[in-house]
Amino acid sequence: KNQVEQSPQSLIILEGKNCTLQCNYTVSPFSNLRWYKQDTGRGPVSLTIMTFSENTKSNGRYTATLDADTKQSSLHITASQLSDSASYICVVSEGFSGGYNKLIFGAGTRLAVHP
Amino acid sequence: EAGVAQSPRYKIIEKRQSVAFWCNPISGHATLYWYQQILGQGPKLLIQFQNNGVVDDSQLPKDRFSAERLKGVDSTLKIQPAKLEDSAVYLCASATPGTSTDTQYFGPGTRLTVL
Questions:
Q1: I need a surface site. Which of A1, A101, B57, B63 has the fewest CB within 10 A?
Q2: How confident is the model at residue B96 (pLDDT cuts 50, 70, 90)?
Q3: Distance (Å, rounded) from C-alpha A39 to C-alpha A54?
Q4: Chain B CB contacts of A27 below 8 Å
Q5: What are the residues whose beta carbons fall under 8 Å from the beta carbon of B36, sequence distance 6 or more?
Q6: Which of B44, B89, B104 should one mutate to test binding to chain A, selecting the residue with the greatest count of A CBs within 10 A?
């Protein structure tokens, strides 16, 4: 069964600190992996998208890594800010590049940044 | 550029009543998605449209849920009759088709509470 599992379920850090969120998946065939940020009461917003051949991608203070061999991804947040408090959702696209892709969502990691 | 619009933002109904949600995607986006997000979980795809045709509705509870996208632009999602377990946030997203890495843009969602 195609699944996406994220850890930890929730995380509290102090402002200015770094943190890393984990994502393990069993989706096959694999097309791409995305990280989304979802603020409370709002829809998810895309942070990064990585295909099979990419092993790292950055978006400002967010850096995502992908190990397609072990089927693991991480999202590293540098110098956290209060505005980083949100849920971070890992999404894996099932399917073949160029065709219809079905997105499999993880449950998310809820991050709270405290002053 | 205007984002994905959804209405209403909140809805409270009693079980066995009917409810409808409306979504207006980003102009020019041919692909439209409806997701159900239960509290503490990631979004679950209910239905995907390509223009006004259905691409995937495998997880749509068709005995009570229905969706349409007339003229390939706006879309409505209906629940009739509602059950307690339908309480969730209903997210609409749109994307431009063409590549496997097309970004989905989400609306703010409609929070449904079934009493």
A1: A1
A2: confident
A3: 27
A4: none
A5: B43, B44, B46, B88, B89, B90, B91
A6: B104
What pLDDT digit, counting tens, does each position of B31-83 carry? Answer: 999 999 999 889 999 999 988 889 889 899 999 999 999 888 999 999 999 99
Mean per-residue pLDDT over chain A, rounded: 92
CA distance A19 to B97: 34
d(CA A39, CA A51): 25
Is the confidence at residue B98, as pLDDT, over 70?
A: no
Predicted pLDDT at B71: 84
The separation between the first and the last C-alpha atoms of chain B, rounded to the nearest angstrom, is: 37
> What's the confidence (pLDDT) of residue B103?
82
Sorting pLDDT into bands at 50, 70 and 90, what band is A96? low
Contact B19, B12 (CB under 8 A): no
ω into B43 cis (within 30 of 0): no
Q: Does A49 touch chain B (CB under 8 A)?
A: yes
> What gap in Å lies between CA B110 and CA B79, rounded to an integer?
13
Asked if residues A113 and A80 have their Cβ atoms less than 8 Å apart, the reply is yes
Contacts of A66 (CB under 8 A, 6+ apart): A33, A50, A54, A55, A56, A72, A73
